[in-house]
Amino acid sequence: MSQPTRYRATIAYVGTEFHGWQRQKNAPRTVQAVLEAALAHLARAPVRLEGASRTDAGVHADGQVAHFDLPRRREPRAVRDAINGRLSEDVRVLAVEETAPGFHARFDAGWKEYVYRWSRAEVIAPRDRPFVARISPRADAERLRVAARIVAGERDFRVFAVTPPAGESTVRNLHSITVREEGTELQALFRGDGFLRGMVRSICGVLSDMARGRVPADRMARLLETGDRRLLSHKAAAHGLTLCRVFYEPAAPRRATIET
C-alpha cells in the first residue's frame, strides 16, 4: 500500500462571511471546514487540513499556509484546481506543492506577518471598506510609531490575549511593528514568531486610542509593566486585520511553540 503524499498550500480568503479559520461544531461556515469538504470530495475520504494560524471570525488572509495528506499522489496544479472548483469566490487556494512527510504548517513556521489597516478618510471607498477600520482624521502616525516601538520584543503578552491557553507559555517574540502611512491610510505590520489569540487586535485597540490621544502617552508601557487588563482599550475591529504571509526556513526543524 502506497504512503500518503503530503501537500503544502497557500490560501487567501476574505474573512467577512467566515466564522474564523478553525472548524467548529456550532459554526455554520469556517475556512478550514469548507476546504476540508472540497478535499474530501477530491480524495473520496475525509482529509484533515492543518493551518499555520487560527484567524478569528472576520479576519482576512493573503498568505495563510496549510498542509494536508492525500491517499495517492496527484499533480499539485490539479489538486489546486480541483479544490478551487468546489469553493466560493471568497476563498482560494493560490498554490499547492508537494512537501516532506514531516512538514507541519504550524509547528515549522519561522515567523508570521499580520497587517492592520485604518482609514482616516472622511468617506471610505466601497472596495476598501471590508478591509480597513475607520479612525479619526486626527489620528497621528508618529504617536502610533512611538507606541508600537514600546511593544516589540520578546516578552509575556498575556495581558493582550483572549483566554490565554492553560498551562502554556504566553511569552512570544514580536520581532517588529512597522507603521506605514499611505495617504489617509495608516498601517501597522506585525512580524513575530507566534501570536496569542486576540493579541494583535488587542494591541491595535490600544494603538488606535494612543494615535488619537484618547489615552495617556504611557498607557502601553503601563500595560506591559502591570499586566492590568483594566487599562486595555476595546479590541480593534476584526475586518481591519489580514494575515499577510507565513515564512519557513528551508528544511525547517519542528518547533515546540503552538499558536492559538
Distance between the termini: 36 Å
Question: How many domains, in number, for the residues?
Answer: 2
What's the rounded overall pLDDT mean? 93
Helix content: 10-25%
Name given to the CATH homologous superfamily of the largest domain: Pseudouridine synthase I, catalytic domain, C-terminal subdomain
Gross geometry: globular
Q: Which CATH architecture of the largest domain?
A: 2-Layer Sandwich
Binned strand content: 25-35%
Which structural class is indicated by helix and strand composition? alpha+beta
Element order: H for helix, E for strand: EHEEHEEEHEEEHHE
> Could you please say which CATH topology of the largest domain applies here?
Alpha-Beta Plaits
Describe the structure.
- It is a single chain.
- By secondary structure, the chain is an alpha+beta fold.
- It has 2 domains: 104 residues, 2-Layer Sandwich (Alpha-Beta Plaits); 136 residues, Pseudouridine synthase I, catalytic domain, C-terminal subdomain (Alpha-Beta Plaits), CATH 3.30.70.660.
- It has 5 helices and 10 strands, in the order βαββαβββαβββααβ.
- Strands 1, 2, 3, 4, 5, 6, 7, 8, 9 and 10 form a 10-stranded mixed β-sheet that branches.
- Helix 3 crosses helix 4.
- The longest helix is centred in the first third of the chain and has 13 residues.
- The protein is globular, with a radius of gyration of 19 Å.
- The two termini are 36 Å apart.
- The C terminus is likely disordered.
